[in-house]
Amino acid sequence: MIRMxxxxxxxxxxxxxxxxxxxxxxALPLLVVVPVRFVLPxxxxxxxxxxxxxxxxxxxGIASAALLLISPALYGLMVGFLLLDxxxxxxxxxxxxxxxxxxxxxxxxxxxxxxxxxxVSVAALLLAGLPQCRHCSWRQWWLRSTRRWWPWRxxxxxxxxxxxxx
Length: 166
Hints:
Layout: H1 2-18, H2 20-24, H3 28-31, H4 33-51, H5 59-88, H6 91-95, H7 102-127, H8 138-149
Helix pairs in contact: 4-5, 5-7
């Protein structure tokens, strides 16, 4: 499985490097962090003044939703563009005669952007200053959030007084 990733990833990197739009897509979720962290709070304060409602309390929810939705969507878009390029170049039909099973290729196509989207989403949340919990550090938050998905790989989370987790 790892061998398949190490052999197909450089081919994808070469395909991404050829196209100008595709070169921007991997870094775009991390570039969105800057406006979310610095522009969105000011915008919410101004809109709150206009409407007479304190909208700044909604910042963590709006910022989290934006960052958690943008990263996987952009990596899915990138995979879609890669598949379109491969279809146009007839690479997908050439893959049928290789020893690589179609099931393994589909697993690679689905697993790589999913894992990358997860890692970049968590990095974007941390760079944006989220989660905003004063009782736990980002390390404790990371261990607790990943432990829910992969409980057999991570050690038990350190004890904390964080009320965000049961």
